[in-house]
Amino acid sequence: MASGATDTSASERREALKGLFREAQACVRCAELAATRRTVVFGAGNADADLMFIGEAPGASEDEQGVPFVGRAGKLLETLLGEIGLQRTDVFIANTLKCRPPGNRDPQPIEIENCKGYLLRQVELIQPTVICTLGNFSTKLLREDPTGITRLHGRPEVILLGHRAVRLYPIFHPAAALYTPRMLETLREDFSRIPELLTLGAPPQPEPLEMLAEPEPEIAARAPEPGEAAAAAVAEADQLGLF
Ligand code: URA
Fold first, then answer.
1. Has residue 83 been placed in a domain?
2. Disulfide-capable partner of 76 in 109, 147, 174, 196 (CB 3.0 to 4.6 Å)?
3. How many independent structural domains does the chain possess?
């Protein structure tokens, strides 16, 4: 992980990520998602990764296991990673939404807005140099622009996220590529350029004046219900081992 002399250490950042994980476990910003989820799928992988993937939202398997991309799309993601010599544990995988939308419906704009603070803080703490957005939702969110993935895939660009410049690399979502051979071929080609992007390291960072701190968004939490604390402790023990 490329880091400057003034950066906090990787272990301090990982501790802060654990704190964020705990905060996310109690999130009730989206009433429907909080009422229907089994787990908050925070993300998994290397907390000091150079490469981060951001998908859409957990599906049924992810909600059950508390781990992102463990279903069929996840298997494809693992295969593609393997083809460029990487494993899940080398990268950090997260989603635009941390909770499963019921029936796998699309994330709603208000849910994306509610969850955005978690994602931006994950990026700030993990400090990846390259972020691969998988599909439309994460691409539009991080670019703050409605241009779709069909136009943008495979084109790296430097963007400012919070206080850091990162290389954004939008690619097709593996779930979409599962059923469309031509899209899979394109995804594979786009994937093959990731190692080259990683060798470029972090893009030039903004001058300190541009980095004037913005207040962190406040994130709603509630006290756990009876029995929930114990379940949360088990989930925490399981999930903290994921990063
Ligand atoms: N699709 C996603 O976008 N995220 C997951 O975690 C699984 C499938």
1. yes
2. 174
3. 1
Q: What is the C-alpha separation between 128 and 240, in angstroms, rounded?
A: 19
Kindly state whether residue 78 falls inside one of the protein's structural domains.
yes
- Give the separation between CA 206 and CA 140, rounded to whole angstroms: 22
Q: Is the CB of 172 under 6 A from ligand 1?
A: no
**pTM as predicted:** 0.88
Tell which residue, 149, 153, 195, has the closest CA to residue 51: 195
Q: Is residue 216 part of a domain?
A: no
Beta bridge partners of 160: 165
**In the structure encoding, which two tokens stand for residue 163, read together?**
């206080």
* CA atoms of 62 and 237, how far apart (whole Å): 17
Report how far ligand 1's centroid is from the alpha carbon of 213 (Å): 31
Counting DSSP H helices and E strands in the chain, the numbers are: 11, 6
CB of 62 within 6 A of ligand 1: the answer is yes
pLDDT in tens, 162-218: 889 999 999 999 999 999 999 999 999 999 999 999 999 999 999 876 555 555 555
Considering just the CA atoms, what is the radius of gyration of the chain in Å?
17
pLDDT per residue as tens digits for the range 126-139: 999 999 999 999 99
User: Do 43 and 111 form a contact (C-beta atoms < 8 A)?
Assistant: no
Pocket test for ligand 1, best of 39, 53, 62, 119 (most atoms within 8 A of CB): 62
